[in-house]
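Risk register update: the risk of archive-format incompatibility is retired. Evidence:
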Amino acid sequence: MEKKKFNIDFVTEFEIIDDERHLVRMKMKPDPARYELQVVHGEEMYYDKYDGIYLPTRVLAEAFRGMTGTPIYGPAPTISDLKQYLIEAGARIQEGPNSIGSLGSTLQTII
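Archived output:
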């Protein structure tokens, strides 16, 4: 049987577990705008409305088995004012030895 690569679109819900330690519980499920849950030959499957394929729920369960409780790390943001940061970065770029003159004006235009 030939294996094919495909994408799965998920919608994600977050529940704050511990605000101080930045712990959240993440729930992912196939995007209902793309997938329709159906029963085919007694088995629950997600029907992909775009690609016209079926994805058994047991396959998803197997793919995510063992991931419960797995930590996902993400650094806290360190830039408090993105607009000001871009202005200052554009100025530094223009002043630098390898200045890219148009980049600073492009950043100014964007913000």
